[in-house]
Amino acid sequence: MISKLLHKIDGLTADERDKLQDKLLEQVSEEVKLDVSYIIVLLSSTIITTLGLLTNSTAVVIGGMLIAPIFWPIMGLTLSTITTRRHLLNKSAISILISIGLVLLISSSVSMIIPFSGVTEEIRQRTNPTLLDLLIALSVSVIAVAAIYYPKISTTATGVAVSIALLPPLCVSGIGLALMDFDIFWNSFLLFGANVGAIVFAGVVTLYLLRFRPKRKEEKERLRIGIIFSILFLFLLSIPLTIYFRDSIAQSRIHEEITNELNSQFMDITEDSRVETVITQNFSTLDDSIKVQATVFLPEGFYITNAQQEEIIQSLSEKTGKTIDLQLNLVTTLLLRKEEDENIKSLNREIEIFIARELEALNSGIVINDTIINYPENFSDNGGVIEILLSLKDFGDTQITFDQKQNLEERIKVYVNNEVELNIELVPIRKLSQPSDLVKLEASINNVLGQDLNFIDNNIDIGELIVVNSENNGKGNVVSVTAQIYVPAEVDTATIDKATLETHLSEEVEETVELELQIIRVEKI
User: Fold this and answer.
1) Transmembrane stretches, by residue range (predicted)?
2) Could you tell me the pTM of the whole model?
3) What Å distances lie between residue 293 and 279, 322, 440, 443, CA to CA?
4) Percent of the chain with pLDDT strictly greater than 90
5) β-pair type (289-299, 323-333)
6) Which CATH number do you get for residue 357?
7) Which range of residues forms the domain containing residue 34?
8) Is residue 149 in some structural domain?
């Protein structure tokens, strides 16, 4: 029934089919040749596609795929499998192998020569192959083979469709070689291999249904062997692809849970917060921990305490069932302030200085971790109770009694001539003991330094930050910090006291900090 239907659609006799088959075999055999034009187009498309991947430009990646000639060797492999033409099979296989070697060589060379900021989204998309990619490759193969029978289907469009499944992941493998990252190389090469196997297999099946078949008995036997090997190859590839597919679904679900929970937690702190760029690094469902990086925009004057950060981590762990390694990049956003707001900002600073002086007189061993001051709405007009959360570092022997707390509260009331509610929390201090603590140390230094510099001038930004934690016989642990800071031309650099910043950082991380500032002047645009 299928045979009659196809015959009716095509309107070709058996002899006409044989002539068409021979003609197409000759055409594909000619296109598979590794001549100068093929090499030039292959190298050009590889360079363009690699640059698109490195610069995260989808348009450039598509531009590289439009001229990629790798479509023809794949078609040669497909046709030679169904017709068992050994010469075409050998020529196509050699062409594919040489093409793979050239693409890997050129893409890795371009990646080592051209500076780029890291793994882009275009690269990342090709490092997580799943069964969906296999289905796409199967569909592409059907389109490619259909172009043989139906002239209305452009062979150029077919070539682009195949190139989409082949060239970008192969270029990503070359980038993985340049980065010496085995995961990137293997995952993208697995995607490439799965696409090749799926395209050849689906092409063979489609051609067979369209009655592209071997003529001699021994050729038919070789065809059966070829199909069996193709099925076995696809089955073996489907095993890791199924695992990746399961992990991809789990990663997507957990990423959404983490993003929603972070938004909820920071909205509780202030409704003006905004969570952006949440990155959950690739992980397996078998992993017990997840590294999370998040950029959070907080209004000027809002910070989070260590206790609040621990609560966020605990909440994320409960939501995901995983151990969360959270790195927060807190960015202070500026709000247009009225004169009353500026008065409150000045009062904030006065209260902080007063509290620091009072605690120093009470006990010189007390170290302030953070001071958060909240004012009621319309404070300037209606007054109200000022809420102060004082976060102190607890080294295991920090002593502050309830009477001392009450006395401090009363003294603050007198100082500001207003009702005050003082709450004190103790933040346990733990020494660095694991390699992963270096990440937390960098985040802590970045946050503290950013807050100190913003206090000097809100337009000062931190660029590259290098933190090295090492042993020093004379000083114990020494944390060397090299920071690039971008300072507007109108800001007097004399206001940036390196010694004060160094002292504050040392108090925060409980280690000796040696700070080197690289000041870069910037002009207003």
Assistant:
1) 36-54, 60-82, 94-118, 130-150, 157-179, 185-210, 222-245
2) 0.51
3) 5, 15, 11, 10
4) 5
5) parallel
6) 3.30.300.20
7) 2-215
8) yes
